[in-house]
Amino acid sequence: MLLNRTTYLIKEQVAFMKLTDRYDIFDPESGEQLGFAMEKISSFSKLLRLLVNKQLLPTSIVIQEDEDSEPVVTLRRGMTFLRSKVSVFDEAGKEVGFFRSKLFSLGGGFTVHEPGGEQIADVKGNWKGWDFKMTDMQGKELGAVNKQWAGALKEMFTSADNYLIKLDDSISSNPGLAALLLAAGLAIDIVFKEKG
After folding, report:
1. Of the listed ranges 98-102, 123-127, 171-175, 188-192, the one predicted with least confidence
2. Which of 11, 94, 111, 146 has fewest C-beta within 10 Å?
3. Domain 2-193 of CATH type 3.20.90
4. Closest CA to 175 of 105, 88, 50, 117
5. What is the C-alpha separation between 173 and 142, in angstroms, rounded?
6. Which of 89-93, 121-125, 156-160 is least confident?
7. Cβ burial, residue 126 (10 Å; 0-12/13-18/19+)
8. Does 46 score more than 70 pLDDT?
9. What is the spatial distance between Cα 71 and Cα 165, in angstroms, rounded to a whole number?
10. How far is CA 75 from CA 1, 24, 37, in A?
């Protein structure tokens, strides 16, 4: 199962003039594809992206193991002005938590909350904005999201990124937290990195 792992490689697919994003999810050690994440938005939202920065518009991303399976995790972000909120839902459609972007942060970051609103963790980026650490409220590291070099041409001419997500071994026994951490890599990309 997708959420029983502790490492993931997320590769954003490259496409010319794309209006939606798709990410392939791999086991970084074996290279086996574990699933994918695909942005699902309305036709009207796609048209708006031609006129408005897509970071400001609502989006939904579903994570599935294959084309025929039901979503394992769903991320939803509403309209954004100053701070983004990305809600994360499990396979039953139950909210497992949400991220709220920080207003002032040198490398970008989120606060991580339970569905009721209590903060349970922090995601902090470094000054380059390529490496993120997730820590609990006592400062214990729960996981990390690191940008992976994709090659000179891809880096120069596309906005497609690759991320390595590593979770603490203790996370595998907590599917809700694993879903939040897997979602963190995608939330970083849709909130901070994607331009358009």
Report:
1. 188-192
2. 94
3. yes
4. 88
5. 13
6. 156-160
7. middle
8. no
9. 19
10. 19, 15, 10
Q: Is residue 182 within a helix (H) or strand (E), and if so which, with residue range?
A: helix 175-188
**Per-domain residue ranges for the chain?**
2-193
| Cβ-count burial 34-46 (b if 16+ within 10 Å, e if not) | bbbbbbebeeebe
Strand pairing report for 33-39 and 59-64: antiparallel
Phi, psi of 98 (to 5 degrees): -150, 160
Nearest-angstrom CA–CA distance, 195 and 148: 18
DSSP letter at 20? Answer: S
Length of the chain: 196
What span, in angstroms and rounded, lies between the C-alpha atoms of 98 and 78?
12
What pLDDT is recorded for position 107? 62
Helix, strand, coil share (%) of the chain residues, nearest 5: 20, 35, 40
Q: What's the angle, vertex CA 93, arms to CA 86 and CA 113, rounded to 5?
A: 35
Q: Which pLDDT band, with edges at 50, 70 and 90, does 11 fall under?
A: confident
